[in-house]
Design brief:
The chain is an alpha+beta fold. Among the domains are: 25 residues; 71 residues, no CATH class; 105 residues, no CATH class; 84 residues, no CATH class; 90 residues, no CATH class. It has 24 helices and 10 strands. It has a 5-stranded antiparallel β-sheet with strand order 8-5-6-7-9. Strands 2-3-10 form a 3-stranded antiparallel β-sheet. Strands 1-4 form a two-stranded antiparallel sheet. A hairpin with a 6-residue loop joins strand 6 and strand 7. Helix 3 runs antiparallel to helix 4, helix 13 packs antiparallel against helix 14 and helix 14 packs antiparallel against helix 16. It is elongated, with a radius of gyration of 34 Å. The termini are far apart.
């Protein structure tokens, strides 16, 4: 064994000596050699450098290409496919993830990505993947989208196909108040007001999501004044800011526009979009309802999911045989497109779907704007961060069911002082009275049939689950007795002395006939309405008036007022 190792060592030594000798003779030829022989080493070095430069440049370009970023690593298809379908599909990945800088700076940033390769090889990557190390918005977004630009209002038509009503189409019209600019130019308003003013916030949940923001600090550009707003539903300790410095962020473009390049639509959104473009025919009976039911399920593999989608063809063949026979191509094309949509929104191996990556530029399916503008973030003066519907866009207007034209105001509507109150949206359901008729059609107030301004289905037919209208502190602020109304026990527990005046102020604006109920008189209250007796003498628990209030009536009475009325009913509901 030792003899073999000795021979091997000798062979290696001789080989190295021969190689070094050849290199030395090549690069340091005899001084009396020809001029070409003397220049050959230098030409070889220059050639090698040129080849290395070309190969290095080509490698740099390849590794900076979108295809390399999205296809080489098997963990990237969710981001890459969504990127190809985004408004930024012609912006290179490295523009945002590496940023514009000198080659040296870009190289050092790119070298950091070696850690991703190591994790990839060792299967140490997370699922789902969230962005890390994105360059600041000032270095990426604002290279193209200058913050000083002012954008005029932009009209949008939102088309929604009702799954339960056989793909019935509703169109909602609104104009987004993008705004922007600076206060020095008389601008600095609209949605992009957030760019002009310095806003800091602290989140308390996962740093990849940032859906829970209980603390917000605003420094106004025009005055330099600073305000702090905190979530009234969260009890923050005195040292909250000090202990959460690692979660303190400066608001920028990506705080809201976090999915502009990588959005994962929900089945409802994707099908609405496809039907609006007629890629999927809205004429296929209950297609959206059936497609959503299939797409919303969880499947172990993509193969199982696509097989379930394929089953829609058999469903229509079995349940709508005449329609399917006459429209097979239309149905089959729709099913194939659903497969494509599913491929774009669900990635089982990476545990990615529309449920894993929130879109903060909305406030219906995700908290988005309502992370701060939820109506329950209050400052020291008990003023909330404004939540008015017409703050960032006009009040949504539905297209009339009779096919007539929907109208939107072209100018900013007049707002009385009461509407400028930062708590107005939470308060207006309790402050409704006859004065509203001076500006609004108040037919069917609180309804959702679009018969009037106060029956707007875009407002009242949607559950705004992330808004804080019913937060305890907010209700205490806005649901209060108007000045001059009687209170108990100062007033007697009778209709004439206590209950009647309260009901007149709180309820008669609607229930002066709505649902057949007339609460403008004692006799009307005793008679009840279309749903039956509103008041059962001696039995408050059995009275519809009390039952509906406890269940969450749109115009809920304060707890003390409801308690007085409950006592009054249990006492036999005396008139005087």
């Amino acid at each position: 064994m030792l003899k073999w190792l000795s021979r091997l060592g000798g062979w290696v030594d001789r080989s190295i000596r021969r190689l070094w000798g050849a290199i030395r003779r090549f690069f340091w030829p005899h001084p009396e050699s020809s001029i070409w022989r003397l220049l050959l080493p230098y030409a070889t070095l220059l050639g090698a450098l040129a080849v290395a430069f070309i190969i290095g440049g080509a490698a740099w370009e390849v590794t900076n290409s979108n295809a390399f970023c999205g296809l080489v690593c098997h963990t990237m298809p969710p981001e890459y496919i969504s990127y190809l379908n985004s408004p930024h599909s012609r912006v290179k990945c490295v523009e945002c993830h590496i940023g514009r800088a000198t080659i040296a700076t870009q190289f050092t940033r790119k070298a950091h990505d070696i850690s991703h390769v190591i994790k990839y090889l060792g299967a140490g990557y997370e699922t789902p993947i969230y962005v890390k190390g994105l360059r600041p918005a000032q270095e990426i977004c604002e290279r193209c989208h200058t913050p000083s630009k002012f954008s005029a209002n932009s009209q949008t038509v939102i088309k929604h196909y009702d799954a339960e009503r056989n793909n019935a189409l509703t169109e909602t019209y609104l104009a987004f108040k993008t705004g922007g600019g600076t206060h020095r130019e008389g601008l600095g308003k609209g949605i992009h007001w957030h760019i002009e003013n310095d806003i800091e916030y602290i989140f308390t949940d996962d740093k990849n999501l940032q859906l829970e923001i209980p603390w917000v600090k605003v420094t106004y550009a025009e005055t330099g004044k600073t305000e702090i707003f905190t979530d009234s539903e969260v009890d923050l300790p005195p040292d909250f800011v000090e202990k959460n410095q690692e979660n303190l962020r400066q608001m920028d473009c990506v705080t809201c526009h976090n999915r502009n390049s990588h959005e994962f639509m929900s089945p409802d959104q994707a099908l609405d979009d496809a039907m609006a473009r007629n890629v999927i025919s809205p004429e296929i009976p209950y297609f959206k309802q059936n497609a959503v039911a299939v797409m919303a399920r969880e499947y172990p593999t993509m193969g199982h999911a696509l097989s379930a989608v394929e089953g829609l063809k058999n469903y229509y063949k079995a349940n709508w045989p005449e329609y399917y026979a006459a429209n097979q191509t239309t149905v089959d094309q729709a099913v194939e497109h659903v497969k494509t949509l599913y491929h774009q929104m669900v990635y089982p191996t990476m545990e990615v779907s529309w449920t894993t990556h929130p879109n903060n530029a909305e406030h219906k399916n995700w908290p988005g704007c309502f992370r701060c503008h939820d109506g329950k973030h209050l400052n020291e003066q008990q003023e909330s961060i404004r939540i008015e519907c017409n703050l960032c866009h006009t009040i949504p207007t539905k297209a009339p069911a009779d096919g007539s034209t929907a109208y939107m105001p072209l100018t900013e509507p007049f707002e009385p002082p009461s509407h400028v109150d930062s708590n107005w949206i939470a308060r207006h359901r309790f402050a409704f009275d006859s004065t509203c008729e001076g500006c609004h059609d108040v037919t069917n107030p609180g309804g959702a049939d679009d018969s009037s301004f106060c029956a707007n289905s875009a407002c009242h037919a949607t559950e705004w689950k992330f808004a804080g209208f019913d937060a305890t502190r907010i209700l205490a602020l806005v649901n209060t007795l108007p000045e001059g109304l009687p209170t108990y026990p100062d007033a007697a527990l009778t209709w004439n002395d206590l209950v009647g005046p309260i009901v007149a102020a709180r309820c008669v604006a609607c229930h002066g006939g709505t649902a057949g109920l007339y609460l403008d008189s004692y006799a009307g209250a005793m008679a009840g309405g279309n749903l039956g007796p509103a008041i059962v003498l001696g039995n408050a628990d059995g009275s519809l008036l009390v039952q509906l209030q406890r269940e969450g009536h749109p115009n809920s009475l304060p707890a003390n007022e409801l308690d007085w009325i409950t006592q009054w009913i249990n006492a036999g509901a005396p008139e005087s």
